[in-house]
Amino acid sequence: MGVVDVNNKQFSHLSIGVYGHDPLSCFDDDGRPKRTGTAWTASAHIITAVIGSGVLSLAWAIAQLGWIIGPAVMLIFSIVIYYTSTLLADCYRSGDPLFGKRNYTYMHVVQSNLGGFKVKLCGLTQYLGLFGVAIGYTIAASTSMMAVKRSNCFHTNGGKSPCHVSDNPYMIAFGIAEILLSQIPDFDQISWLSIVAAVMSFTYSSIGLVLGIAQVAANKTIKGSLSGISVGKVSETQKIWRSFQALGNIAFAYSFSIILIEIQDTVKSPPSESKTMKRASLLSIGVTTIFYMACGCMGYAAFGDLAPGNLLTGFGFYNPFWLLDIANIAIVIHLVGAYQVYSQPLFAFIEKWASQKWPDTDFITKEIQIRVPGLGPLKLNLFRLVWRTLFVITTTTISMLLPFFNDVVGLLGALGFWPLTVYFPIEMYIAQKKVPKWSTKWVSLQILSMACLVISVAAAAGSIAGVVLDLKVYKPFRTSY
C-alpha cells in the first residue's frame, strides 16, 4: 500500500521495460497492482462463495413452510440481500464514490463509516460467526463421512442391517486433519483452494438436484402440501419452531455479505466499483436463487414432509450408492478447505493481538525453523501451534456435544443475517450518504432493519428450540446413527 515512488529510477526503468508505458498505469490509485475484475468475475466469486453446504438443508426448510410460503420466503430473502448488498457496495469508497479512500474489508468499511463501539460489535459478531461456522463444518463433514460408511453398509447388506455408525471417530479424524492444516501459514491464500472448493460445492449440489429430479420422476407425483409439514406428524409448537428455524437455514444459505467488500476490491474502474458490484450482485443472487429454488423444491417434491435435514446424508436416497459417495466425499473435501478459509481470519486476529500484547515473549513471537524432508524448511511458532490446536479441539468437542447439522445451520444463519447482512450495511449507508433522520428513506431503512431483526430473533429461537428437542434423545459421545 501507499504511493508508488516514481522517483526511483531503477523501478521506473524496470516498469517501462516490462510494460512499455508509464509505470503508474500498472497501479491503481492506492498504489496496489491494477485491478482487473469485472461484473462477470465478481459474480463468479459470489456464486462460488454462496453455494455451499447451506444448500443441503433447503429441502427441509421448504418442507416446514410449504409450497407457497417456502419459495416466497426464499425470494424475499434474495431481494433483501440484493438490496443490502447494493447499500454495502456504495460504502466501498469513503467520501467520493469514484476517487474516495478504498476500504479493503468489511471491518474497514465499518471503521471508516461508523467507528467506535460498532467496530468492536462488528468484529465480535464476525468472529463468533466464524467460530460457529467451524463447528457447523465439522458436523457437516463428519456426517458426510458417516454417510459414506452407511451407504456402503446398506449396499453390502442389501438394506437388511440398520448400519448404526457413531459420528465421533469421524469428527476426531476431521479435527486431526484441521490441526495439521492450521499450521500451514496462509493456507487460505493457496491459489488452487478456491477452485477445488468451487468444483466440489457444485458437484454435490448438482448431484442433490439431479437425485431430487430422478426421485420425483420415480414417484410419478409431486409430494408436499401448500402449508408444509402437517400438524400431527409434529405438534403445533414444533411446527412453529421448525418454521422459524427454516428461516435461519435459508438465511445461512445466502450469507456472503462479509466477503462482498473483498470481492469488490478485485474490480477494475471505470465504471465505478459500486456500479459493477451492483450488477454482479444482481446476476449472482439471481443465479443462486434459481439454483436454490430448484434444489429446495425438488428435494421437497421428492420427499414431502419427510425431506431430510441434510439432503445427501438424511438417507432419502439410497441408490445409486456410488453417486451418493461421490457427493459426500465432495462435501468433505470442500469443508476441509473451507474450515481453514473461515478460521484463518480468527487465527490471525488472535495472533496479532497476542504479539502486540506481549511483543517480547519468545513463546508468542519466536519462529522455529524445522526442516521437513521433501518440503524444505517449515516455520513453527509455539503460540500458533498451541492456540490453533486448542481452537480445533474446542470446535470438535462442541460438535461432538451438539452434532445437529440442521439446528446449527439455522442458528448460524439467524445470528449472522441481521447484523452483518442488514444492520451494518444500512447504518453505514445512512452515515455515508448522510440520510436525514426521520426522512422517508431513513424511516424505510429502519423498518427494514427492524423487520429483519425480528426474523433473526425468531430463527434463532426456532434453532435453539430444535437443539433442546434433539438433546432430549441424544446422549453425548454415545448416540449412533
From TrEMBL:
Signal peptide: none
GO cellular component term, pick one: plasma membrane
Superkingdom of this protein's organism: Eukaryota
Segments forming domain Amino acid transporter transmembrane: 35-468
Transmembrane segments annotated in the record for this chain: 42-62, 68-92, 127-148, 192-218, 282-301, 321-342, 385-402, 408-426, 447-469
One function term, GO molecular function aspect: symporter activity
Cellular location(s): Cell membrane
Keywords annotated in UniProt: Amino-acid transport, Cell membrane, Membrane, Symport, Transmembrane, Transmembrane helix, Transport
GO biological process: amino acid transport
Similarity-based family: Belongs to the amino acid/polyamine transporter 2 family. Amino acid/auxin permease (AAAP) (TC 2.A.18.2) subfamily.
Protein's recorded name: Amino acid transporter transmembrane domain-containing protein
Originating species: Saponaria officinalis
